[in-house]
Amino acid sequence: MNDDVLLELKKQKLEKQKSYVINMSRKERKRKKKLQELEKDIFETKAEESKQVVRRKLTEISKLTFMIYFKILKCYPDSKVLSVTLEGLSKFAHTINIEFYADLVELLNNLLDNAELGYREQLHCIQTVFIILSGQGEVLNIDPARFYSHFYKNLLYVNAGKNHDDMETILKTLDIILFKRRRNVTYHRYVSFVKRLSTLCLQVLPNGSLGLISLIRSCIHMNQKLDILLDTEAVNAWGVLLCLRLLGNGVQSGNSSFYKS
């Protein structure tokens, strides 16, 4: 009988220990879960702090960079680093504070009129202006007619043997002028640019010609009034007209024809 009692007591003791262990396991799981949540919160807080630090440093770097750019443009227009400065401005113009837009546009206009700029430098000046005017600068009362004239004139100076590497900058600038800012471009100016692009197609390498033909095709599709450029019977003073056979989504340049009025 004593053995049975002892066995029962031992069994009860083991049950208590089991219950204790189970309860401890639950507490440990809760504790572990809570600890993981805290670690996650700490990690997210540190990550947010890191983002703020990075953002603050990038802002400071941008301010210093643009301060250097403006210093070069104002005081050292003949510097050897002017080309790099203008290229940098064209890439990051969209990040400049809107308060500086008007002064920067005027500064770039003075460079185009008075400084002895190379062809690439002129392109970067024009590209920067249109990047500014296609973003927050739309609210500014700035007439870009002078920059249209500069760009239109410079397009004829591109050729396969000398400065074909500038085609990327030209195509990006054309994309801004003819598409992003198309509502600000008059009909006659639009026609003039399309005509000029058709001439430019004959002066550049095949890859540049394909890019230009694609732009012309998109222009004609977006503006039905440009169909007059395809009218071989029209008599006008527009000079060389480009006739494209447009099939579906592609351009079959083999069937392209040119006409002189």
Automatic annotation (TrEMBL):
GO cellular component: nucleolus
Domain of life from the UniProt record: Eukaryota
GO molecular function, one term: chromatin binding
Domain CCAAT-binding factor: 123-234
Alphabetized Pfam families for the sequence: CBF
Any one GO biological process: DNA replication initiation
Coiled-coil features, chain-numbered ranges: none
Family: Belongs to the CBF/MAK21 family.
PANTHER family named in the record: NUCLEOLAR COMPLEX PROTEIN 3 (PTHR14428), NUCLEOLAR COMPLEX PROTEIN 3 HOMOLOG (PTHR14428:SF5)
Protein's UniProt name: CCAAT-binding factor domain-containing protein
